[in-house]
Amino acid sequence: MGRVIIIQDDSHVCRLLINKLSRRREIETVVLQDVSQIFKFNIGIFDVVILPNDHLTRSGLFRLPQIRSSFEGIVVIVTSYRNDADECLALSSGADDYIYWDENELVLIERVRLYSRRLLRGRGADEINKQFNESGWILGEFYIDAIARNVRFRNKVLPSLTAAEFDVLKFLIERIGEVVSRDELAYFALGRRFESGDRAIDGIICKIRRKICVVKGGGIIIHSLRNKGYMLSAEL
Question: pTM of the full predicted structure?
């Protein structure tokens, strides 16, 4: 679940944001009337601070420096108008993203979920590196042993991963919950360009699936998305 703070103003885009996001179960939304209220919260438990930015008041841009000075998470400016100068100012002042929003909340929600996954991975890596900095690291249900080049799922070692299988699975785990294209897998995991008609990645994925099933006991957690690539499910 994504956890979001919206700093409220009187703008139309803010009213729409609150109305849309507050009805989504996968997004936990807290609305604050003023920037000063943010200091009453342990804002470290939130993933994203959203600053609505109206084209008349530009309230989001004015509030950005104060938020950025006290919050290390993701800060997003959401606006209903396009202005290159404002976008450049927002990004140079510390915003992580500047989103033009046309009342369809789906893309915005996917952005929030993406930020949440990345922050979760980062927090997990920070905690794990203190305990496993000599050999490997944990992400979710997976433990990657970088020295032995093996992967454990729920404390069970996946049987006999080849070098290519290990590299592909490691890359998918690092991008868990995200769609990874065959081009990316070929380049970053195998060190070569993906060519049309090349089925090597598909074959490797098939073998990885079988080996995960051996320790998991069934169920597909690496999903194929036609013409897009593969995704290792975050719901295991």
Answer: 0.46
